[in-house]
């Protein structure tokens, strides 16, 4: 989802201590192996399955905070403990900060004094603060432990950085990024429950696939800023501990975005629904007419104008990158809404060339294509960005005018609506019932 001023899974601004790294990482890696093997014999199970939990039953998240890194720098107020044979080898304590890179012989770790240590590249490299406090990656502090995973299929010298953290310590770093800091406490609690539900759903899906991480720290999933001092976010997560949204007994993938513009989107129109993605067919995730209150959003309604050549070249580039036939489109003469959902939001477009041939794209595909980078064209900025797929398009004299509503995909919770409902005195439970009808709120741990 995305940062207030960016757009999370597509949104807009509305903006433990490791008691024993040795024992913890041993259990972690063993369970990862079991999950990977199990995935060979079954498809992903309902997201109620509990794995990789701590002693109190709290799930641990594996959050990918960097990918394809060639080098990484880690710091702490004290020393940094490094190990890549948890429970088997001997952890090494090094002076902070430490720098990590991959060489032909394995992990190369250099500490503040210039001392260099080498570690087996056949195992992930684990780093933590010697006293259990946050460890900084770059300039950002992260709670829990950081594991580095090689990416040999991409390049022998790159790796992923994955933060292993209890979910209740992870969530404040998400909620603080999703909403404006001065928003109502009930809005923060609503966001916390939705974000927890989404995170645990994606966690189970990733574990079923045997991946080495559960969730991205960017708007590809939900933005995570590491440790936070935002007291409203911290209290909201504490007040809603373990609460998730369920539908017919299963964890709901609680999508959310910045601004619905009055017309919510449908998950089935936005993401795949085939084998492994059946969760996008869940009734509470489909758009329907409902009261909305996001008129205060700066992107409730907007217009953007571009040249026809700009739009055509971006659509072609998106088609080439995504493997869609629209890459062969030679001209752009007309764009029409072909289908709308029950709320009246555009769900599918047809793009016509000068000869009348057309290509069909979903609303989200059209939005992404319109914003796709293309050689020789300027970068997309706020003033030129197509903020949602709910648009009307008019082409005249070499110009394309987009008249749009909202920011993001519009599926599920609208953050700006949530803030307005919260200021009216509605509770998190009441607000969630608006956006995810016929769901239940359950305590999962």
Describe, in plain words, how this protein is organized in 3D:
- Residues 2-51 have low confidence and may be disordered.
- Helices cover 24% and strands 27% of the residues.
- It is α+β, with helices and mostly antiparallel strands and 445 residues long.
- Among the domains are: 21-169, no CATH class; 301-405, no CATH class.
- It has helices at residues 21-39, 167-178, 185-209, 231-239, 267-270, 308-322, 363-370, 415-423, 428-435, and strands at residues 60-69, 71-75, 80-83, 92-94, 98-103, 106-110, 116-119, 125-129, 135-137, 140-142, 145-150, 159-166, 215-216, 243-247, 250-251, 256-257, 301-307, 334-340, 346-352, 358-362, 391-396, 399-405, 413-414, 440-443.
- The chain is globular and about 70 Å long.
- It has nine helices and 24 strands.
- A seven-stranded mixed β-sheet has the order 4-3-8-11-12-1-13. A six-stranded antiparallel β-sheet has the order 7-6-5-2-9-10, with no helix packed on it.
Low-pLDDT runs of 5+ residues are: 2-51
Strand portion, in percent? 25-35%
Biggest beta sheet attributes: 7 strands, mixed
Overall mean pLDDT stands at: 89
Q: How much helical structure, as a percent, in the residues?
A: 10-25%
Distance between the termini: 24 Å
Structural class: alpha+beta
Tally of contiguous helical segments: 9
For the secondary structure, the number of strands is 24
Radius of gyration equals 23 Å
Strand order of the largest sheet: 4-3-8-11-12-1-13
Global morphology = globular
């Amino acid at each position: 989802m995305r940062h207030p001023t960016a757009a999370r899974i597509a949104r807009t601004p509305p903006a433990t201590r490791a008691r024993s790294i040795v024992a913890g990482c041993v259990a972690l890696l063993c369970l990862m192996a079991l999950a990977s093997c199990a995935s060979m014999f079954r498809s992903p199970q309902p997201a109620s399955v509990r794995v990789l939990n701590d002693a109190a039953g709290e799930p641990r998240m594996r959050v990918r905070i960097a990918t394809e890194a060639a080098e990484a720098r880690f710091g702490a107020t004290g020393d940094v403990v490094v190990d890549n044979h948890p429970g088997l080898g001997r952890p090494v304590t090094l002076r902070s900060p430490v720098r990590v890179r991959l060489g032909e012989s394995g992990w190369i770790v250099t500490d503040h004094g210039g001392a260099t240590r080498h570690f087996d590249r056949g195992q992930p490299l684990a780093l933590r603060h010697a006293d259990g406090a946050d460890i900084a990656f770059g300039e950002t502090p992260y709670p829990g432990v950081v594991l580095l995973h090689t990416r040999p299929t991409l390049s022998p010298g790159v790796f992923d950085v994955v933060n292993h953290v209890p979910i209740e310590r992870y969530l404040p770093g998400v909620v603080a990024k999703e909403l404006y800091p001065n928003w109502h406490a009930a809005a923060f609690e609503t966001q916390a429950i939705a974000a927890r539900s989404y995170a645990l759903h994606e966690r189970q899906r990733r574990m079923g696939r045997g991946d080495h991480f559960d969730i991205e720290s960017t708007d590809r999933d939900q933005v995570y800023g590491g440790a936070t001092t935002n007291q409203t976010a911290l209290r909201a997560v504490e007040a809603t501990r373990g609460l998730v949204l369920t539908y017919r007994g299963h964890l709901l993938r609680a999508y959310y975005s910045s601004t619905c513009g009055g017309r919510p989107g449908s998950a089935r129109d936005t993401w795949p629904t085939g084998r492994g993605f059946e969760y996008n067919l869940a009734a509470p995730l489909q758009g329907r007419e409902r009261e909305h209150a996001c008129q205060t959003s700066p992107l409730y309604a907007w217009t953007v104008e571009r040249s026809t050549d700009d739009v055509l070249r971006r659509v072609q580039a998106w088609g080439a990158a995504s493997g869609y036939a629209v890459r062969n489109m030679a001209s752009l003469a007309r764009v029409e809404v072909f289908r709308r959902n029950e709320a009246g939001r555009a769900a599918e477009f047809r793009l016509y060339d000068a000869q009348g041939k057309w290509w069909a794209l979903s609303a989200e595909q059209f939005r992404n294509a319109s914003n796709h980078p293309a050689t020789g064209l300027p970068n997309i900025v706020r003033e030129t960005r197509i903020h949602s797929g709910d648009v009307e398009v008019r082409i005249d004299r070499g110009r394309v005018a987009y008249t749009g509503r909202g920011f993001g995909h519009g599926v599920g919770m609208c953050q700006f609506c949530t803030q307005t409902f919260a200021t009216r005195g509605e509770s998190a439970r009441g607000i969630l019932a608006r956006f995810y009808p016929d769901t239940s709120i359950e305590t999962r741990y």
